[in-house]
């Protein structure tokens, strides 16, 4: 893996400084080099990883996942749902339809929320990219903190018995399915060739949906890398500013991207002096509290449940950011 990164860096250097003729010491040269290197690296990693995970997922039928979660008891269901969320490389908005499917299948509400939180917040793509950028220590803390947020958030919502805070049509659909027996139709296992086609199509679909956001995030990160003075970020988002974490969470809410798309931006912010906890709180806020997701969820949840969901996430992410800043 290290050789792969070295080769990409040499390629980015050659394109930036030889083909384009930019100066290594210039702001533009630094920004362009960052953009070429990160864009190439992330898109290659994403393509390989999404295809591999999509191929593996063809061996795990969706109805089996639902059956597994339905059989779990109380808190173990939250843990299982949060773990399922990690291996689903969805952005926040694309996780919502599966969340609705879990509810309509009769999966406990708390477990469905654990899935809804962990799916955009932490996934295998973000884990691999964080590992390459920051090392295993930060990656491990990120995974553990994300799981804790997902599990505790789901448990709280489950214990409050807020099923009546879902929109009526969700449970009307559930009642119709119960009357029909809600059968799980067994289908033949796909052949190896069919699994390949499924993985290829899912890879193309996911890349089509996320590539633009990734490129935009990398471009912003490249601009920060090349042009934003380090002292500026240290002053307003460094560890000395006690309010930097909640401000970062608020900034992330109106934005929209997935974890992979935010990582280049976070990398540039940390490099320029932003505290790691503050930067990761921003990433968590963008991926798990995005405004588009809230708009979609409003179609499923009543205002009280949606407000509680937002509050739990915002408080949990803020606390996590402070913990990161304290220990790192």
UniProtKB/TrEMBL annotation:
Entry membrane topology: Multi-pass membrane protein
Pfam family for this entry, one: ArsP_1
Cellular compartment(s): Cell membrane
Listed transmembrane segments: 42-60, 80-103, 109-133, 140-158, 210-228, 240-257, 263-284, 305-327
Any one cellular-component term (Gene Ontology): plasma membrane
Secretion signal, residue range per the UniProt entry: none
Recorded family membership: Belongs to the UPF0718 family.
Name of the molecule in the record: Permease
């Amino acid at each position: 893996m290290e050789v792969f990164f070295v080769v990409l860096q040499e390629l980015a250097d050659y394109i930036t400084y030889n083909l384009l003729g930019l100066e290594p010491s210039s702001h533009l040269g630094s920004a362009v080099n960052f953009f070429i290197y990160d864009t190439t690296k992330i898109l290659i990693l994403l393509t390989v990883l999404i295809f591999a995970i999509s191929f593996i997922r063809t061996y795990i039928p969706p109805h089996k996942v639902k059956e597994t979660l339905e059989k779990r008891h109380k808190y173990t269901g939250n843990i299982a749902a949060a773990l399922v969320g990690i291996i689903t490389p969805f952005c926040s908005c694309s996780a919502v339809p599966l969340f609705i499917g879990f509810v309509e299948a009769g999966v406990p509400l708390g477990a469905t929320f654990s899935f809804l939180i962990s799916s955009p917040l932490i996934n295998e793509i973000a884990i691999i990219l964080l590992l390459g950028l920051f090392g295993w220590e930060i990656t491990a803390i990120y995974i553990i903190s994300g799981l804790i947020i997902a599990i505790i958030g789901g448990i709280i919502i489950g214990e409050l018995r807020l099923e009546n805070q879902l929109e009526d049509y969700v449970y009307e659909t559930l009642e119709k399915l119960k009357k029909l027996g809600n059968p799980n139709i067994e289908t033949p296992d796909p052949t190896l060739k069919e699994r390949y086609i499924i993985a290829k199509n899912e890879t193309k679909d996911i890349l089509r949906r996320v590539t633009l956001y990734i490129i935009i995030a990398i471009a912003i990160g490249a601009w920060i890398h090349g042009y934003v003075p380090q002292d500026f970020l240290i002053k307003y988002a460094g560890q000395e500013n006690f309010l930097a974490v909640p401000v970062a969470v608020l900034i992330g809410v109106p934005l929209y991207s997935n974890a992979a798309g935010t990582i280049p931006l976070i990398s540039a912010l940390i490099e320029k002096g932003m505290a790691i906890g503050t930067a990761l709180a921003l990433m968590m806020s963008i991926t798990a509290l995005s405004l588009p997701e809230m708009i979609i969820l409003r179609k499923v949840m009543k205002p009280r449940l949606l407000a509680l969901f937002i509050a739990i996430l915002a408080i949990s992410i803020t606390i996590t950011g402070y913990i990161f800043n304290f220990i790192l």
